[in-house]
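mind reviewing both lines:
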Amino acid sequence: MIRHIVFFTVRDKAGIDQIVKGLSVLTSIPHARRLEIACNRKSDQLDNDIDVVVYGEFASETDLAAYKRHELYQEAIRLVRPLRELRFAADYELSTDVHFAGMAGQMMIARNSGPAGQE
């Protein structure tokens, strides 16, 4: 599974609702297993610069690529780009790229040892 996470900052804080509305069109694209659009609660004690988050889960790289090629993805870009300041995106494969994950007090190590997991 591929996780796709995008963080946005906005130029004018009054535009946050417009950005969320513009990004909401992404939820109609059929290639995602899960897609969430959320405002940052800004409860971190060190940094609260991020305003809006997109979180998606995709069965494969092929599904993620199809999502990014979809016409509604282009529409979201058209609606959001003029309102945002910064955009940061990250994609990773759950089964191969995750080195450590906490689950109910247990530590799990990814099956393949990449550069960060060479013990």
